Amino acid sequence: MRDILDTVNTWIAADRPIALATVAATWGSAPRAVGAHMAIAPDGDSAAIAGSVSGGCVEAAVIREALEVIADGTPRLLHFGVSDDQAWDVGLACGGQISVLVERLDGAWWTLAAARMTSDLPTTTLTLLDGDHIGAKALYDADGLSLYSAAGFPHESSFADAVIAARRATRATIAGHDLLLDTSRPRPHLIVVGGAHVALLLAEMGLRLDYRVTVIDPRRVFATPERFPAPIAITHEYPDRAFARIGLDADSYIAVLTHDPKIDDKALIAALPSAARYVGVMSSRKTHAARLERLRAAGIDDGQIARIHTPIGIDIGASTPEEIALSIMAQIVAVRRAK
Prior knowledge:
CATH architecture of the largest domain: 3-Layer(aba) Sandwich
Number of domains: 3
Largest sheet: 6 strands, parallel
Distance between the termini: 24 Å
Order of helices and strands: HEEEHEHEHEEEHEEEHEEHEHEHHEH
């Protein structure tokens, strides 16, 4: 949903009619995952689109259906597969199958869901996929509290439990209802300790990959708004204090780049016992051996030490700052995707 957020908000502000297409289920080699969205708005004799539900192979058919949904207001659950003549017509001949819900955009739901996404607050949307009220939605927070419920959406206590347990978008039958559970998690948080040249490139890559980015460096000359413009956040605290204020969780990815033990050690001592998913430090093996002695003296145990990625980054033979930043970002992505 994040990839269509700005476009849909622009269309809403212009009072354009909008249809929303959402991948409800996939089998085989379908190219987009459950929960992928595409927004469609009439545009003269054609249509304007944002996002994708298949990487291109069923988009034309979905757009045709979406324009009909806008005209008649009737949601529909579409299915494309290799056994369907329509699927062959649109090019889904690679063995995959996909179900797509197409509906008019629920503006009240969108306003709430988009605001929480913009604020990086976790939510789950439940959407009915069967019955007289197909497409009806309810929005829940991470604790299972209902924030919005459309007319016709059923109220079942088991929905809250399902929301709390949800970790990714999925289709499920709960209390006899066919539902799409579409989760929205906070963006991953790239925290760069040190503001030297590699940090500039790494922060830019993080933004391009839709990470929240924070740069921490008590050396003010390195961390300036000119070097790291908004939306990158800058703090001149030492990293242990900055981490305590920011809060580290499983969506945190920390790259320690200063080469200054007064800064690096504070970062590692605070980060390693935390829930941060990734902790990497730029270092030679000789420098790191001396660092390990200091970390153990500070109470960091071997299990926590084993979490450190150093030398930082995937070994691609990187030598330039650009290549080093690429190797670090690639390693962070690999850890995030559990590869």
